[in-house]
């Protein structure tokens, strides 16, 4: 560190000389102040999870005089205050936060998702529980949540923690929605899901399973009996290819229906040759599940690998598991014998101009080929089932739409979110549930309904990347592909150890927030910077002694100090 400081001091001196001072000391009217900025990871997370603060609780635990175990518990509570599913999201989220991480410009983004998974598992292992808000009261209003996927569960969580009476209506026999019936168990163990759901129920949420609103109970009854209704029914209806014979063929099953069968404990006999059509998450899940059912699997996608919307980690996982990918091709006809599809006629494609999705449009060319098949899984899209819910205004052509506050109909206190609006990430669905709960509470209590506003976002140009020691992103060893495809439940990789979680958390640059490094204190020649009396408190400034040299701003690695 001494070498690094010497180099940095020389750089500062050179900077001052370049400005015309000839000395590193300057006199200026500018004075330092602290400005907390928004870390880009938190903007990348739709939930706004306090990633930076949670990682700092772990990496700075010694400075703050707490044990490592205490830091994990504090970090878990900080995380779960915004996201009550850290174990679940630590396994299924495609981590958009990491795409924004400033450390990418140095040696790779911080492995936020893997630390999240560790914290989630830590919380389960140590029996940590969710808490009601400090100002929670027993409010008289009753809230109905239709659907128990991530959006519905999060809406229930936030309303229950405030003190409202919440009832969840779920058409299936277990809670979880697409988390349970759409995601394979090798990606999301059911005991993990059950435990994180149970913590929400322990806040006093009532549950009515095997009750489909619109079928078993009229929507109007729910609308009349409850003070607010949140519609989060998900998109459990798969779309077929639109080809002759597919509805009659018993071995043609949509991706979402196939995954539902498997996840309900009724995996079908898929035979030896399976073709999955599609390039999204459900298509990859279906393909990898079929591999685990003993089939040779071909995934047919009409664009190239680069355009696949599936999570990259899952695409790579499928490649390692020897799934056969055929790109730039699409089914155009089926040969059905009796009640079975035996052959698929496919047409080759080429990429044209971009379409509304921003991806290049597949254009048919005059080349064809056939694929033999024992089981065909079209996984091209899915949609909500609005039968019996027509009063919400939803239909297959016009899914539910809401305003910025998740309001569907203000006069009826009707709200909506999750895949009933559009297909999206689990973390987006969670945010929508929380946003709806905040809106309901504000409207019930006569409070202003506001959209959160971020402080300025700090980019990698405002962070001193050279200050931080090089440290490669940690990875964990995966289970051998030949072994893991023998089980429908074995996870592909393990959770971080405590030591690995600390190591990865310490890679966080703490963009826009003090890490108590002492750089400003060391480099201030005028004794303006004052160390805090207690760990975790801010450094302070004796501004009457300041010459305005800007050194503290220049050496602050995380961009927390500003001059004005």
Give an overview in words:
This protein is an alpha/beta fold and 564 residues long. The protein folds into 4 domains: 88 residues, Alpha-Beta Plaits (2-Layer Sandwich); 133 residues, no CATH class; 154 residues, FAD/NAD(P)-binding domain (3-Layer(bba) Sandwich); 141 residues, FAD/NAD(P)-binding domain, CATH 3.50.50. Helices cover 31% and strands 16% of the residues. The protein has a 6-stranded mixed sheet, sandwiched between helices. Strands 9-8-7-13 form a 4-stranded parallel sheet, with helices on one face. The protein has a 3-stranded antiparallel sheet with strand order 10-11-12, with no helix packed on it. Strand 10 and strand 11 form a beta hairpin. Helix 12 packs across helix 13 and helix 13 runs parallel beside helix 14. The longest helix has 20 residues. It is globular and about 90 Å long.
SS summary, helix count: 19
Major sheet: arrangement of strands: 4-3-2-5-16-15
CATH class category of the largest domain: Alpha Beta
Class by SSE composition: alpha/beta
Which range best describes the helical content: under 10%, 10-25%, 25-40%, 40-55%, 55-70% or over 70%?
25-40%
Proportion of strand residues: 15-25%
- Please tell me the total number of domains: 4
Task: State the major sheet.
Answer: 6 strands, mixed
Stretches with pLDDT under 50, minimum 5 residues:
1-24
Overall strand count: 19
